[in-house]
Amino acid sequence: MALDRFERNTQGLEERIVPLLTGEHFLEALNELEIAGVKFSVSGGLLHWEAPDGLVSERLRRTIEQRSRQLNVVVRLSAVSVNRWWGTRLHQASRAGDLPEMERLIANGAQPDTQNKYGHTAMHLAVGNGHLQAAELLLARGASLDLADLDGRTPLHVAVETGSLQMVAWLLSHGAAVNRGDHFGLTPLCAAKAAGKPQIEMVLQQHGALIVDPEVPAGDQRFLQFMLKVLAQYGQELKAHSVRVADISRWLANHVRLPFADCVEVRFGALLHDVGKMMLPDDIFNLADDEVSPQHQEVLMEHPIAGYDALGSDELNCPDGIRSVVLYHHEKWDGTGFPEGLKGADIPISAQIVGLADYYDHLVVERSYDPAVPPEQALEKLKSLAGTYFDPELVQAFGQVLDEIRVYGP
DSSP label at 53? Predict the structure, then answer.
């Protein structure tokens, strides 16, 4: 009975794969074969493959051999191809700690330092999932220990956050940068202190760890410390909203291919986009739409200017790009926004991105005075406002990454 079923599986594989290979659908055939358990590798420029005994019929074997030249190319391409998250098969294997698969993919041309949309390398994923042997393999194959993700976090930051003393010690013993700050200037030691991990703190300090990244200029340190203090002073609802808007904005900015430094400024600007509200009466933010009087509206419309001014001191050293996000995130594409009534492309793209993310978050998060709507319905609302409130092309881009953006929902 079991033999009959195995023979049917073998015949079924042949029936699926032979037409794909003869029809030159090589990538689809490769995926099907690997799912079935056939593994391909390239060594010395030649294609090699192995399969469980009896899985591949004689006809399918001959067809594979006849198409070996084309499959050789496809196998190498598949090792470096990326999915919708810009992740590779090596990312997946490293996350799972699958050492044989990692070896095979690297032999086929996979690059250990390829970064996905989050900026994660295979090393980030191996470290984050506690796979020490996978991390050792990657290092032996030339992987960097110090590449940063979109948040500026290196694998050492990740190891500290996951609480793996063994992984922290291994990274440090192999020369990981101990004082590299993330985009907030927070070093691994700072992260360990914040998470209450005294053993990791001690190991880091034994390797010369500092609280502040010595490479960050003093002026930038003052701004980063100010931003962290502001976030700490936000009420819970405003803080959660600002963090969500920052993550959505960072993702959208990355999708529309803003330069990396601009993506960082977009995120920081989003975190601070409502800083001006701290200068306004608290009760005004709990009013339902039908309770907001013209006088209330005038007060509410002051918060972009209030925030812009608050960030303007020379001592604070706030980048102009961040201040412009705070000032212009309520401008509208048709010129009916505030505070300056900018129109179209005159609105800085960073402020447009944050304004769109801000509006979306207000739609999908339930408030005491305003029920939430599903992400798809929120997108339809944004589409209805394309050309009036928002740049139509930016709304279209938002729709293209909605599945990714919903990760940052409440």
Answer: T
The DSSP symbol for 370 reads B
Domains and CATH numbers, the chain: 2-80 (no CATH), 112-206 (1.25.40.20), 224-408 (1.10.3210.10)
CA–CA separation, 376 and 89 (whole Å): 30
pLDDT at 180 over 90: yes
The mean pLDDT value of the chain amounts to: 89
Distances (CA, A) of 258 to 7, 147, 310, 333, 395: 54, 20, 26, 19, 16
- Relative orientation angle of helices 89-96 and 68-80, to the nearest 10 degrees: 70
Give the amino acid at 133. Answer: Q
The identity of residue 236, as a single letter, is Q
C-alpha dihedral over 248, 253, 259, 261, to 10 degrees? Answer: -30
Q: How far does the chain reach from its first CA to its final CA, in angstroms?
A: 51
CB environment 2-38: b (16+ within 10 A), e (fewer): eeeeeeeebeebbeebbebbeeeebeebbebbbebeb
Residue 313 scores a pLDDT above 50:
yes
- pLDDT score recorded for residue 3: 41
Question: What distance in Å separates the CA atoms of residue 198 and residue 381, rounded to the nearest whole number?
Answer: 49
Structure tokens, 409: 């929902």
How many residues in total does the chain contain?
410
The Cα 146–Cα 154 span in angstroms is 5
pTM attached to this predicted model: 0.70
**pLDDT, tens digit, for every residue of 25-52?**
888 888 889 888 898 888 888 888 999 9
Q: Which of 266, 243, 244, 242 is nearest to 254 (CA)?
A: 266
